[in-house]
Amino acid sequence: MKTITRRNFNTVIAKGMGGAALLSAAPFACAMGTSQDKKKLGIALVGLGSYSTYQLAPALQDTQHCYLAGIVTGTLEKEKAWADKYGIPAKNIYNYQNFDDIANNEDIDVVYVVLPNSMHAEFSIRAAQAGKHVICEKPMGISVEECDAIIDACKKAGVKLGMGYRLHSEPYTQQVKKFVKGKTFGDIQFVSAEAAYRSTGNPDQWRLDKSLSGGGALMNMGVYAVQSAIYGTGENPISVSAQEFSTRPEYFKDTDETIMAQFEFPSGAVGNISTSHNFNANSMYVSGTSGWFQLQPANNYGPLSGRTSKDDEIKFPHESQQKLQMDDFAKHVLFGEPNKAPGDMGKRDMMIVEAIYESISKGGQKIPLDFAPGFGFGG
Ligand code: NAD
């Protein structure tokens, strides 16, 4: 099994430059040429862990504009099990070593990277270099530098890039955005967002290993709370201050257990987020000059639930969020529909994550943030 190191990440980036030069001589020769003639895009999942197994692959049985065409795995037994279960032909099955041969496979239009966080950059860049559109799971990488490298590689290869931020495709989150945009509850003054679960499993899991995860609760769940704070106000923050709390250092040897952070927004709105691997929390609350709304749960696989100060329940029929998300990305590729979770969104969140860690390292100091208005907002 291949683990990314700083050295092989740099090699991939260096190869990316060369690959990009080749690709620029024949722009859009691979993915763009074939994808646009297709009715349904073929997706290859890279990394067949729990998210691919229990969410993405089942959702791909119901998607309208894409389907499960291939797999990339480091585990031989999974090749047969997945081939049998989903009827995947042998020519569409890859491992981490021969993955780059996917460039020659016309069945595969999109590579969806569902690996531990420190491997996102390497495989997203290799996918782009192979001429495939890319969906990258959250968090986009383990540093802003990696996010830039992914964005760059996709631009140079002329392929589309989307984040695995499923909530942007589901109706409760879209309703939140509508409330904010339409000022249904006046001007937003305050947002509170929580994304956390209590981790008690194997202490050797990759999520608790900084070299693979890049960090703890903040990298894993915290990005959802950051996201909620942003779509709950409709603004990117202009500063963040943060604090870290630890109660089980023997379990969380290498990664953050609980982090709380406070945001200021350009309008004067303020926000408070909490994320943890030590307690359960899953909600967002937004208060405006003429009322409030909340979602609880706000960021799990659903069904979500919400209500407002107008005494209304927010209620939508439940559908697989992953199905909606992958179809939205396919419609972006096939029909030029808006990219609801573009690469810039993943990069923006990583910039905020890095600022949160910086604030903690400086004893909670306020760290200024300077985003162009709307930077990282999806379509
Ligand atoms: P998982 O541990 O269940 O699966 C990880 C997969 O990566 C496994 O198949 C494993 O064999 C493979 N792998 C390859 N190299 C590895 C290495 N060196 N160490 C460990 N595993 C290695 O994880 P998961 O829950 O499927 O998460 C995968 C990615 O998907 C993560 O980036 C996570 O943040 C993201 N995710 C997103 C959502 C979402 O709602 N968008 C939900 C769950 C996970």
Automatic annotation (TrEMBL):
Keywords associated with the record: Oxidoreductase, Signal
Pfam families registered for this protein in UniProt: GFO_IDH_MocA (PF01408), GFO_IDH_MocA_C3 (PF22725)
GO terms, molecular function: nucleotide binding; oxidoreductase activity
SUPFAM superfamilies linked: Glyceraldehyde-3-phosphate dehydrogenase-like, C-terminal domain, NAD(P)-binding Rossmann-fold domains
Keyword Oxidoreductase: yes
Residues spanning the signal sequence: 1-31
Domain GFO/IDH/MocA-like oxidoreductase span(s) in chain numbering: 174-293
Gene3D superfamilies from the UniProt entry: Dihydrodipicolinate Reductase, domain 2 (3.30.360.10), NAD(P)-binding Rossmann-like Domain (3.40.50.720)
Domain Gfo/Idh/MocA-like oxidoreductase N-terminal stretches: 42-165
Keyword Signal recorded: yes
Protein name: Gfo/Idh/MocA family oxidoreductase
Taxonomic path: Bacteria, Pseudomonadati, Bacteroidota, Flavobacteriia, Flavobacteriales
